[in-house]
């Protein structure tokens, strides 16, 4: 094994590129060594994509005591074009992008009358995988209830996610104040 000691490596040519090792080799950094980056680092770790954030710029009517699908018409960002805001109003995991995802939804549910409970449900491929319910007892007329759920899910390419809202109370029921739906793939 050869041993080279130096305080600085510089490229011999103007390209500015220095290559350590060959394809298939391992570069080992011993325990106790600190790597300091004073420039730009690339190719390390990964990024949290695909990622999306969608919202509804209006309000959605909710049928009393019926889970109602929440449609999100405004795509704030969608790195891999997985959210369909025209036909199905759902997020589909792109080809080759299976893995663990953090998925969340926030809803503001309101009624002109009393409210007894509210819920946000996350469906994966048409079945509930999360259903966060808030029971409030009887509240005053004109109540607004904010509810949020976020979870980590193992998803495969082609899996799709949809958000549902539920409000238990008489009168006019709505989901308002820009409900949101978001997610991103976790770097493993």
Question: If you had to describe this structure to a student in words, what would you say it looks like?
Answer:
It is a single chain. This protein has 188 residues and is mainly β. It has one domain (51-185): Jelly Rolls. The protein is built from no helices and twelve strands. The protein has strands at 51-55, 60-61, 68-69, 74-78, 83-84, 90-92, 99-111, 117-124, 127-135, 144-155, 160-168, 173-185. The radius of gyration is 25 Å and the shape is elongated. The model has no long low-confidence stretch (mean pLDDT 85).
The CATH topology comes to Jelly Rolls
- Total number of distinct structural domains: 1
Q: Residue share in helices?
A: under 10%
- Assembly level: single chain
Q: Would you tell me the overall average pLDDT?
A: 85
Q: What about the largest sheet? A: 6 strands, antiparallel
Assign the CATH architecture.
Sandwich
Distance separating the two termini: 34 Å
Structural class: mainly beta
**Helical run tally:** 0
By DSSP, the count of extended strands is 12
**Helices and strands, in N-to-C order?**
EEEEEEEEEEEE
- Shape call: elongated
Radius of gyration: 25 Å
Q: In CATH, what is the class? A: Mainly Beta
- Report the portion of residues in β strands: 35-45%
pLDDT below 50 for ≥5 consecutive residues: which ranges? Answer: none
């Amino acid at each position: 094994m050869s041993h080279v000691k130096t305080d600085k490596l510089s490229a011999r040519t103007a390209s500015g590129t220095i290559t350590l090792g060959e394809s298939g080799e391992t570069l080992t950094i011993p325990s106790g060594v600190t790597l300091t980056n004073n420039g730009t680092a690339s190719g390390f770790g990964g990024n949290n994509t695909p990622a999306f954030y969608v919202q509804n710029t209006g309000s959605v009517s909710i049928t009393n005591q019926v889970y109602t699908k929440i449609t999100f018409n405004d795509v704030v960002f969608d790195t891999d074009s997985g959210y369909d805001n025209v036909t199905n109003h759902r997020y589909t995991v792109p080809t080759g992008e299976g893995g663990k995802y953090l998925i969340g939804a926030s809803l503001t549910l309101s009624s002109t009358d009393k409210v007894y409970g509210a819920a946000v449900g996350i469906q994966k491929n048409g079945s509930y995988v999360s259903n966060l319910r808030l029971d409030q007892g009887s509240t005053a007329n004109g109540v607004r209830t904010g509810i949020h759920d976020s979870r980590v899910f193992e998803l495969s390419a082609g899996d799709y996610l949809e958000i549902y809202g539920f409000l238990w109370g008489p009168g006019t029921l709505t989901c308002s104040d820009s409900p949101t739906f978001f997610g991103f793939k976790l770097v493993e």
